[in-house]
């Protein structure tokens, strides 16, 4: 009962913050964006949660969209937390806290898009935690989040096939140069012309950066491989 009460408190605290994200920010040094300013570090029993995401002083709708994505991740995390007994986990020979860390890397902003990727690290037992990625690509004109198809389909009807072929080419070249440790089978499977294989992307000044998830095109030890392709490639 104690762990449930404390974990519930942590969840309520977090969701209240996310709900207020649209207005709870400050301009920093005259910049057009800052971070969420108050990193959330709130402990439930055998559980640690830390969340940080960008806040844009001039685009409240993007703040709300980003906060919603963070909420979806935390909801799923807590579902996993309650599906395992925290006390039983703490008594195991390899006891570690449940952990959720949401952060973000570089923000790219031009006249058309604002683009960044949320990084989600989760540990819920096992040999190690896993990192997953949630892309946030915001169209300034339409005021909506865009998918990779939204960006590339107007450039080419067979964009997905072109992307698949180019991804395999670039990743294979990385292996040949010693920049990536993988094999033909993993690369081929992880770059099949399917939308889900290219979910994680960032728009960078006329280019598309594709980021592959752990285990997708290379072993866990290789992290999150990336490739970059100019949008004009698809025309």
Explain this structure to me?
This protein is of the alpha+beta class and 235 residues long. 33% of the residues lie in helices and 26% in strands. It has six helices and twelve strands. Strands 2, 3, 5, 6, 7, 8 and 9 form a seven-stranded mixed beta sheet that branches. It has a three-stranded antiparallel beta sheet with strand order 10-11-12, covered by helices on one side. A two-stranded antiparallel sheet has the order 1-4. Strand 7 (113-123) and strand 8 (130-139) form a beta hairpin. Helix 1 runs antiparallel to helix 2 (60-83). The longest helix is centred in the first third of the chain and has 24 residues, at 60-83.
């Amino acid at each position: 009962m104690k762990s449930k009460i404390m974990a519930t408190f942590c969840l309520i605290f977090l969701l209240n913050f996310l709900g207020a994200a649209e207005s709870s920010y400050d301009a920093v040094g005259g910049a057009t964006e800052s971070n969420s300013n108050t990193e959330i570090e709130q402990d439930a029993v055998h559980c640690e949660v830390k969340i940080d995401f960008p806040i844009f002083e001039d685009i409240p709708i993007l703040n709300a969209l980003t906060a919603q994505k963070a909420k979806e991740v935390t909801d799923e995390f807590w579902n996993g937390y309650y599906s395992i007994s925290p006390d039983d986990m703490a008594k195991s020979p390899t006891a570690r806290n449940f952990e959720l860390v949401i952060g973000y890397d570089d923000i790219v902003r031009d006249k058309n898009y604002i683009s960044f990727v949320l990084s989600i690290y989760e540990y819920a037992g096992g040999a190690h935690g896993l990192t997953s990625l949630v892309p946030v690509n915001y169209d300034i004109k339409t005021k909506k989040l865009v998918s990779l198809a939204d960006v590339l389909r107007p450039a080419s009807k067979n964009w997905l096939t072109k992307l698949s072929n180019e991804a395999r080419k670039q990743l294979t070249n990385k292996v040949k140069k010693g920049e990536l440790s993988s094999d033909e089978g993993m690369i081929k499977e992880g770059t099949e012309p399917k939308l889900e294989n290219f979910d994680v992307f960032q728009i960078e000044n006329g280019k598309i950066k594709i980021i592959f998830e752990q285990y997708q095109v290379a072993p866990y030890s290789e992290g999150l491989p990336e490739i970059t392709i100019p949008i004009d490639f698809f025309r």
